[in-house]
Amino acid sequence: MATFESSIKQVPFAQQAVYAKLSNLSNLESVRDRVPNDKLQDFTFDNDSVSISVAPVGKITLRICDREEPKCVKFETVESPLPFNLWIQILPVTAETSKMKVTVKADIPFMLKGMVSGPLQDGVEKIADALALIDYR
């Protein structure tokens, strides 16, 4: 199992507000227009799952498998060329600010590890950057 962690991102919103938005994937409607169509297509979601097609990887569907209010939302793959788990940790800094980190654990075959580790780390960092920019009001 390989682990990929983002850097810690500062978020100018309270921990509970961040958790409330991220733990219900229907809230992704507010960021739909920020998804780059050239890299991600077929972006669909409901309360508990999200699906995207990522060029050149293919379709990825994640489902929330655990919610630890107000500090963590965990996801597991339902459909993916590479099985993995992803979780978003949210910790308070002050009453109005928080910090977050994205972690991915993937079962990568040894032969592919060198080829996919860089892009996976970069992807985890981009996910964390995008999550840090959301308006959690």
Description:
There is one protein chain. The protein has 137 residues and is α+β, with helices and mostly antiparallel strands. The chain contains two helices and eight strands, in the order E-E-H-E-E-E-E-E-E-H. It has helices at residues 15-22, 110-132, and strands at 2-5, 9-11, 40-45, 49-54, 58-68, 72-79, 84-92, 98-106. The N and C termini lie far apart (36 Å).
Describe the protein's topology.
Elements: E1 2-5, E2 9-11, H1 15-22, E3 40-45, E4 49-54, E5 58-68, E6 72-79, E7 84-92, E8 98-106, H2 110-132
Antiparallel strand pairs: 1-8, 2-8, 3-4, 4-5, 5-6, 6-7, 7-8
Number of strands: 8
Low-confidence stretches: none
Which class best fits the helix and strand makeup?
alpha+beta
Helix content: 10-25%
Which key phrases capture this entry?
137 residues, alpha+beta, 8 strands, 23% helix, 41% strand
Summarize, please:
This protein is an alpha+beta fold and 137 residues long. The protein is built from two helices and eight strands; from the N terminus they run ββαββββββα. Strands 1, 2, 3, 4, 5, 6, 7 and 8 form an eight-stranded antiparallel sheet that branches.
